[in-house]
Amino acid sequence: MSALTTPNKTPLNPSRPKALNNGTSHNTHNNHHAAPELAPEARIVVGNGHARHDVLQPEFIQQYREDSRALRAEILQGLGRPQANISPKFFYDVLGSRLFEAITDLPEYYPTRTEASIFASAAPAIAARAGSGCVLIDLGAGNCEKAARLFPSLQPAQYVALDISVEFLRGTLASLQQQNPQIPMLGLGADLCGPLDLPTSVKRGRRLFFYPGSSIGNFAPIDALALLQRLRAAAGPGDGVLIGVDLHKDADTLVAAYDDALGVTAAFNRNVLRNVNRIVGSDFALEDWRHAATFDAQASRIQMHLQALRDVTVRWPEGERRFAAGDQIHTEDSHKYRPDDFAILLEAAGFTDPVSWTDPRGWFAIFHARG
Ligand code: AVJ
């Protein structure tokens, strides 16, 4: 366990997630949804308006803290490369998280709806296979919505929500805890890109690692394999993984999903420049950059770039970068798997007996495999 680990006593009135105001979130490309803007007390005040002192509270542990100097250095390193890039983790500031949430409502963006429809229709089969009463470890927690929908069928012995920052989890988990007092909950601030050291607060017993939303698509297959291997190392016999994966399909459908008519994905992509300006003090002018999304069929991935509309020089306190008109900054890859290939990846990581559920069009799949 990291030396930074500090078990945190949950305040009686969980505060609004502060990190939402200052930050980037994720290197695991989870979906960060801005927390609902409830008055803090709205979550636990009952009846006569006095806060109860005996309500069940989730536990929070922060294992890993992002350091702003490291984030700056990471961005500047990416901007200095011959092929400039910005990691997709910088999409998810407050506005970016809201834009992502808006993306999931777009008619063209099928993954979220399709995955939800599979969970809805396959929930009994998934529970039969994964087994109820497990410790549910949510690696793509975001707003915890997807896991919460599985509670009735899975009846987890504990719900562990993982995020880069526990601050993102406080509000959501506190209200989820009130709605599900029978399920002990733990919010864990951890980095999925490092080894998975689960603290002792994670109950013993069968574990189900849950990674929904095709977040795994942001990793190149070789890095997805490394992540699965880390999960495999943390899993014992009887444990399993449940992973949402977007599937390979025709280029038109894919490109439309990442270049919608309303321009929400374009705004989501271009917003990364505002976040970068905030973090490194650069002067990217948004009007100089257009959104580009292409499908590389060979690599089976959507690639997002920001393309310079004219010659520009971007400056920051200790440097600058010139871009010629047409030059691109790479911002995201979203890999699309063929079902057999993802099953092979799971087996290569040491998982066994992979099964998947899909929708009638075969656009998205949920995989289960055993540790
Ligand atoms: C959150 C990584 C699953 O790749 O589809 C949506 C992010 N980017 N539209 C995806 C995203 C542009 C999304 N993931």
- Give me the secondary-structure category: alpha/beta
Q: Total number of β-strand segments? A: 16
- How much strand content do the residues show? 15-25%
* Largest beta sheet: strand ordering: 1-4-7-6-5-8-9-16-15
Tell me which ligands are bound.
N,N,N-trimethyl-histidine
Mean pLDDT: 86
User: Rg to the nearest angstrom?
Assistant: 21 Å
Unreliable parts: 1-51
Explain this structure to me?
With 371 residues, the chain is an alpha/beta fold. It is built from nine helices and 16 strands. A hairpin with a 4-residue loop joins strand 10 and strand 11.
Summarize the structure.
With 371 residues, the chain is of the alpha/beta class. Helix content is 30%, strand content 23%. It has 9 helices and 16 strands.
From the structure above, extract its key features.
371 residues; alpha/beta; nine-stranded mixed sheet; three-stranded antiparallel sheet; 9 helices; 23% strand; disordered N terminus; binds N,N,N-trimethyl-histidine
Layout of helices and strands:
Layout: E1 6-8, E2 45-46, E3 50-51, E4 59-62, H1 68-80, H2 94-103, H3 111-130, E5 135-138, H4 145-154, E6 158-163, H5 170-179, E7 185-189, E8 207-211, H6 221-234, E9 240-246, H7 251-258, H8 264-280, E10 289-296, E11 301-308, E12 312-316, E13 319-323, E14 328-335, H9 339-348, E15 352-358, E16 364-370
Parallel strand pairs: 4-7, 5-6, 5-8, 6-7, 8-9
Antiparallel strand pairs: 1-4, 2-3, 9-16, 10-11, 11-14, 12-13, 15-16
This protein binds N,N,N-trimethyl-histidine.
N,N,N-trimethyl-histidine binds next to helix 8 and strand 14.
